[in-house]
Amino acid sequence: MSVGTAIKIGKKPTSIIVTPSAASKVVELLAEEGGTEALFLRVAVKPGGCSGFSYDMFFDSEIADDDIVSEVESEKGLFKVVVDASSLAHIKGSTLDYRDGLQGAGFHISNPNATRTCGCGSSFS
Fold first, then answer.
1. Does residue 120 form part of some domain?
2. Does 124 map to a domain?
3. Facing residues of 110 across strands?
4. What is residue 31's three-state secondary structure?
5. What is the DSSP string of 33-85?
6. Tens digit of each residue's pLDDT (9 = 90 or more) over 32-49
7. For residue 91, what are the domain limits?
8. What's the whole-model pTM score?
9. What does each C-alpha distance from 86 to 36, 44, 45, 89 come to in angstroms?
10. What percent of the chain has pLDDT over 90?
11. Residue 79 in contact with residue 30, Cβ under 8 Å?
12. Domain with 92 in it: what CATH number?
């Protein structure tokens, strides 16, 4: 896999895209959590924020019946990404990236479905 190539997760074209830098960082963070295979990355949308919705990402261990589960392969290892069906409706086609620098270090979601975003980039409508 070449640097900068996005990884499409899921089998449907409505999936989110995980960049190699984001995938590597997730594997690294999972290792810090003990590297347990029972944990996965959950990406969700919740009501709130100054624009109406906000993104939520965390490690989880429970999968619901309506969750969409995908595996992502990075140079550092495999991990699962889980998105619930109602969140996927808001973030399908989005790209999850990780940037490490003096300004804006951290995970960032680029969402083509967002019609409006706030200045901090963590909420959208």
1. no
2. no
3. 95
4. helix
5. TT--TT-EEEEEEEE-STTSEEEEEEEE----TTEEEEEEEETTEEEEEEEEH
6. 987 667 899 999 988 876
7. 7-115
8. 0.77
9. 27, 9, 8, 5
10. 29
11. yes
12. 2.60.300.12
